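Field reference: sequence -> structure
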Amino acid sequence: MLSRHQQSWGVEQWAAYLKDKEIPVLLATRDMFQSLKSQGKDAPEFSPRELAEFVHDDPYLAVKLLIEAERHRSRRLGKETTTQLATILQLGSDELYSLIAGSPVVHVDHPGWQAAVSTAVLASSIARAWSNFRSDASPEEISLATLLSETGELLLWHFAPELPTGAIAEFESGRANRTGLAQLNSAGFTFRQLTLVLADVWQLPQMISQLIRGVDRPRTHIAQIAIDCARHLMQNPDNPALPSDIGNISQHIPGVAKEKLISVLPISDEQKTHILAGLSEK
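Structure field:
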């Protein structure tokens, strides 16, 4: 329950409040790593790359590991940590297991929260695939930044669920016709603004912060369009906005057939054909 004082907080105050909070992990993440741990006396012999794949579906863990890895890096003055693999290499497998085992777990059961988590994970997967088509130097950087795109909202679901549920109520009432406007009306700021402020106060690596912020360059366009596409897919696999998403991404990945760009989307062949038909009508 929000205090009367918290009800008047702006984005800077919420960022200051969340900055040093213990970031939770998903219950499925903790259960999976406990299962892996139980297979042997010590941390199982998985390669860092295999462990990076295990944590790909948890945006809470992704930001938690990035913050912790940067603390380690700052003491050693090494290269900035910009991928999930790099976070694990910085920490080591033993510390990874200990960090997850000692983390609180997210206890939220709301369709809005589930949609936010699923959107971040799906967008990250789409961004990585599209970046590979572009032969990007590091698709994993774009993937990680995309996974962190919903950080502000996801933390509010855990620490102050009244804010995201209030925004949903505002949207469903018809008083706001866009998600960002609903958040602004109910909370006084958008949850994306909170994500950007948190990226600053946590001092996330510059490359990750730039990708989250959407600095005008091809890589940030891939991340942003992947987020839009994932959100549209979560709303409706037949969403009429999807042909526009594919049309937009094709401008930033020249030379790649639209059929190939569509192929990464987790939808049926019939729905993929429908998107192609929508593109031909434009």
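Note: The two ends are 49 Å apart (CA to CA).
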